[in-house]
Amino acid sequence: MKVVSTSSHAMFGAPCWVSLMTRDLRAAESFYGAVFGWEFRPTKLGEEFSVAFHDGAPVAGIGALAPRLAVAVAWTPYFAVDDADVAAARIRERSATVAVGPLRFGTGRAALASDREGAVFGIWEGRVIPDWSVGKGGAPAWLELRTRNAFDAAIFYAEVLEWAGERPGCCEVSYEDDHVVLSHAGVTVARLVGGAVEAAPDPQVRPRWHVHFRVPDVDKAVETAVRLGGTPASAPHPSEDGRCATLRDPDGGLFTVADGQ
């Protein structure tokens, strides 16, 4: 596995974690453990949070939503920042929303936000997990933002997260066809894809960050997920990176399985 960085200061603006907030933590562990072969370990944050591991490497976090919170179950990417307060101010200045935080959370500070089109993401100030990575190659996950206008979205995130700057360690942005490609240290870590999503009836294609998890067999992963109560949001189909399929877990969390180990 390629490691992006062991320090948030050397990787600011890059994806540094993905997490799921769900209604039933134990049920989620059972579901994702069966679909992906993940094992779960408790964290210092208490019984309501756990970290998923695959082949001994951390993959994702899962936490239990407080019953009083009327928010959707969802997978969320987090991006490393030097200063959560500064990043939160930039988000608000650009007519986007900071829903929660920044708050002290374990070894750092986090905030949950949404961009101007409603796609939810998080920011993280603090130490990051050193052997986690996202992107191409052997990384367990990769990210895709599906939004109305990829170029407008790229400008927003570049201003908030300091993409395409001159500081060492920042993310690079390139344009391929109608897509915006985000890279860090030569590794593609995310893709921003535009389209006419405002008229789409299915919420899977409304503006949102999609987390793709690599599996050795897409069809088997889909079969297992459906057997355990998951719901297909799209059938297995070709993509730029092989075959993939989008699913909802039994609690409504949307995720994608894609070719790869």
TrEMBL record:
Protein name from the UniProt record: VOC family protein
Origin species: Streptomyces lateritius
All copies of domain VOC, residue ranges: 14-126, 139-260
Domain of life: Bacteria
Alphabetized InterPro entries for the sequence: Anthracycline_SecMetBiosynth, Glyas_Bleomycin-R_OHBP_Dase, Glyas_Fos-R_dOase_dom, Glyoxalase_6, VOC_core
Gene3D superfamilies: 2,3-Dihydroxybiphenyl 1,2-Dioxygenase, domain 1 (3.10.180.10)
